[in-house]
Amino acid sequence: MTKEKRKKSWDIWSCHIFCVTLPDVKIITPILTISGSDGIGSSGIQADIKTITSLGGDAMTVITCMALNDGKGMKWHRLHKDVIVDQARTIMDTMHPKAAKIGLIQNPQTIKAVRDEVIGCKRIVCAPGIFSSDGSQLIDDESIRAITTYLIPESTLLMLRCNEAEKILDKKITSDDDMLIAAQELKNMGAEWVMLRGGQLSEGRLTALLYGEGTKHFFTSYNIQGWKKHGVGSALSAAITTRLGMGDDVPTAIRNAHEYVHSRVVYAVSNEKQSLRAKDIYNEFISIVAEFYQKEHSVAFYADKLNITTRYLSQVTDKTVGISPKQVISNYLINEAKLLLDNSRLTIQEISDRLGFSSQTIFCKFFKGQEGETPTEYRR
Known about the structure:
The chain is an alpha/beta fold.
């Protein structure tokens, strides 16, 4: 082959080289979870991996302990502090996770050491798991003090059950106002946002609260069995962490995570004969009532918030709980009124004002119509 032909052949070959189009490479968001190992996979590291992966994240893990159930009770095997720290350091140095969830750590020295490793992560969700779903305390009081000292001040979002908040603050939470006060105190400890959940302040419903940056938003559900299911809290915190890592702000992350957990976990125990769509609307209705009950009592207001007609809202509540939306609102008001009558020193007038009634007379008439006695008689 002549020199000229060789040059021409190389020009053609080089053109092919530089015209190759590389396939698009999808970057998967690295999300870190630090928690215990649950061999059955319904909570802990295993469940977090499922949740993070399902939402499109790349799960990174630091195992802090192993839970074993031999049928006679739960046994815990804690990993040594250095082993836990080495795991965290390696992942932080090599994978640079976009968000980190800090779950169960059962040693105060380890809590501080883990904080020192993950402090550079911009989005930290602290969900320490002080109590199990059955109410058993999983960490000692010294570790709880370490959480308040080292983890809460670094938290983008602090997630606690109401009984865990009671343990940290050493006070009872018996009303919505108590939840607000507790959330404020926890935020004052350094957390940017606080989410309290699992507050069964009235019979038949659960309440959660998101608090931070001028926001106080209540969420309410009557599906107590679903939201108290083992592993729901773990799934919710892992889902929120994943969404934060993907760029959501805290309220958006919680909304997206709630939708995921609501459909994938909570209603796995629901009655299949009922429409999931109706339940979704109903639960959203209750959440809006929890937010606005102190100002608005009309069905039309809540239907408008849901972008549906009052007639359709009536069909939803009748199908889901067998009562009218007006009665749902009334039940909520009565429950709150009873809590205030039972647990506060507010006067009847002050309770009437707080619940959004235009006068004490109208409040007393409403209360007697629902309960068969006046607020004063009830308080006696």
